[in-house]
Each structure stands twice: as structure tokens, then as C-alpha cells.
Amino acid sequence: MGFVKVARVSEIPAGTMKHVEAGATELCIANVGGTFYAIGDRCGHENARLSRGSLMDTIVTCPMHSSQFDITTGKLMSGPVLELGGLKEMFTGCPDKVKKAVALMFEGIAEEQRLIKTYDQPVYAVKVDGSDVLVKI
Q1: Residue 123 in contact with residue 39, Cβ under 8 Å?
Q2: Does 33 lie in the same domain as 90?
Q3: Do residues 7 and 34 share a domain?
Q4: 10 Å Cβ neighbour count for 74?
């Protein structure tokens, strides 16, 4: 398909990311110190948009379970964090029977989540042409 325009440079300031779609391909475009990168925008763990996560240097963190990917290579740097922090406190006023049932439910969910394999993200070539960001699809 070749290079296609996906955004304007001004739409993605340094240190930010943007979700774009080029045909059927969902992309996370990141601006790291003026250099643009593109990886697939769907985390393989729970299908969350990586572009809605955070970007620290070249590491993008998934907003859902904190999987981390290197935006330059697409490589998975760390898998999902499966914590239930804060949820238990929501049920402190409930009867013990309810608290136990909820705890078992969350343990089951966490166990199933651990079985989901998180893969590296595809990477796409990016170039800037004037004020346009183009990605090779």
C-alpha cells in the first residue's frame, strides 16, 4: 500500500501519542523528541488502545493492565500487571459472605487474565513530509 498520510505533525506534540486508522489498520503514532514512531494500537492482552496509555521516553504503557512496549521496536518489555488494588476496600462494609464471594470472583478473574498471552506489537515505517506524518502500511 505504501506510505499514507495519517496525521499532521502539529497534532502529535513531543511526548504524546495519537490513535489513527489507515484502512483496517489501527496505529499508535508517538512523537519521541521530534522523531515519530508507529506501532499497532491494540494491546494483545485485553485489546486496549495503547495510544490512551502513557509514554515515557520510548516506552508506551497500556492503560488497562500496564503492559509495556518499546515504541521503537514494538517489543513487549513487561507483561500485564494484574492487581486488584483498591477493589477490596470497596467491599469492607459488606457481610463476610459477600466479601468472600467477591474475593473468589476476583481471584478467578486474575487467574484467567494470567493465561492471556501478550505479544509484541507490529511496527511501521514512518516519515515526515513537510507538515505531514506518513506511515507505510
Answers
A1: yes
A2: no
A3: yes
A4: 19
Backbone dihedral angles phi then psi of residue 69, each to the nearest 5 degrees: -130, 145
What letter represents residue 6's amino acid?
V
23 and 87 inside one domain? no
| % the chain with pLDDT above 70 | 93
Q: Which residues of 95-114 are buried (b: 16+ CB within 10 A; e: fewer)?
A: eeeeeeebeeeeeeeeeeee
Does 55 lie in the same domain as 92? no
Are both 30 and 74 inside the same structural domain?
yes
Q: What is the DSSP string of 93-124?
A: TS-HHHHHHHHHHHHHHHHHHHTS--PPPPEE
For 91-125, the pLDDT digits (tens) are: 778 888 887 887 788 777 777 777 778 899 999 99
Co-location of 64 and 130 in the same domain: yes
Please tell me the total number of residues recorded for the chain in this structure: 137
Q: Which range of residues forms the domain containing residue 95?
A: 82-115
* DSSP code string of 48-79: -BGGGSEEETTEEE-TTT--EEETTT--EEE-
